[in-house]
Amino acid sequence: MNVPYLTVCILCAFLGIAFLYRFCLVFQSSREGYETGACKTIGSREIQMDYFTIEENENGLLAVLADGMGKEAGGRIAAKTVIRVFKEIFETYNMADHPSYFFKKAFQTANREILKQMDEGRGMAAVSAVMIQGGFLFYGIVGNVKIAVFRNEELVPLGTGHTVDVLAQDKYVEGVLTREDALSMLQEKRIYNYLGRDGFKEMQFYDKPVRLQEGDVVAVFSNGMQESVTWKEMEDCLARKKSCKRMAFDLVELVNQKKGDKDNASVILIRVGEMT
Q: 105 lies in which domain range?
């Protein structure tokens, strides 16, 4: 084999790996009592701004998904900052502390760290985080990254997130908005709360922890996944009961197969094993 031909082969292999990296990254791990998998795609964007992590220590299991937004690479910096902060705080988290304390500290610290690096508006992130501790699921949400539990063939959402349509419904119930004003805002999916915002305060937490059952699948997915894949398509995929790695890949492939403009899309899946 001559040198030019070998060089071409190596280049083609490198480009193939780069193509796969651009369109789908898959993560899998089996942890004590849980099977996890995650996958993401860049979609039709030039920059990947979705980042996630799955961590475990003696205090429990943590999964975080950050959906970055902003000018140029600002969203990527914001999302990576969120993941770094959550990992650092989880490393020193004490099980004696309440999970809500962890979430508040992590969200507020991540917000400050983003603002230290960039002016407000240049880099932001919508974030959802779940913690599993002693068979219970705790969660925190900022923005429009969705959390759901798949049980008995049904995908049940947890929390409502921070989009204008949800805010309109809440304000109508409180009597702050008229019915006409609320209806006019129901189609508005723009988020009004995110990390990377001066004066950030609001986080959405669990009212009470969710008691998990054997076979439950906890799903965390970015806005790009929600925009491209229907709820029914997600349920059908999870109902096949494949490995979490395979199901995460299949969900992302559904995004890649859609026509038209596609945002970054990511999903984390955690299947609950035998409960002791």
A: 26-156+194-271
| Residue 245: partners with Cβ closer than 8 Å, 6 or more residues away | 26, 27, 28, 37, 39
- Indicate the SS3 state at residue 267: strand
Structure tokens at 120: 């407000």
* Cα(145)–Cα(67) distance, integer angstroms: 7
From residue 230, alpha-carbon distances to 105, 150, 254 in Å are 34, 15, 10
**Arithmetic mean of pLDDT, 98-116:** 94
Other CB atoms closer than 10 Å to residue 218's CB: what's the count? 26
Q: Note whether residue 240 is domain-resident.
A: yes
Q: Distance between CA atoms of 130 and 64, rounded to whole angstroms?
A: 7
217: CATH: 3.60.40.10
How many secondary structure helices (H) and strands (E) does the chain include? 8, 12
The arithmetic mean of pLDDT across residues 141-164, rounded, is 80
CA dist 49 and 29 (Å) reads 23
Band (182; pLDDT cuts 50, 70, 90): very low
Q: What is the pTM of this model?
A: 0.81
Number of domains in the chain: 1
- Tokens representing 11 are 């280049």
Does residue 18 sit within a domain? no
Retrieve residue 222's tokens. 């970015």
- Under a CB-based contact definition with an 8 Å cutoff, are residues 130 and 216 in contact? no
Secondary structure (3-state) at 119: coil
Q: How many Å apart are CA 75 and CA 49, to the nearest integer?
A: 6
188 pLDDT higher than 50: no
Decide if 159 contacts 147 (C-beta within 8 A).
yes
Beta-carbon count within 10 A of 95 CB: 13
pLDDT at 101 over 50: yes
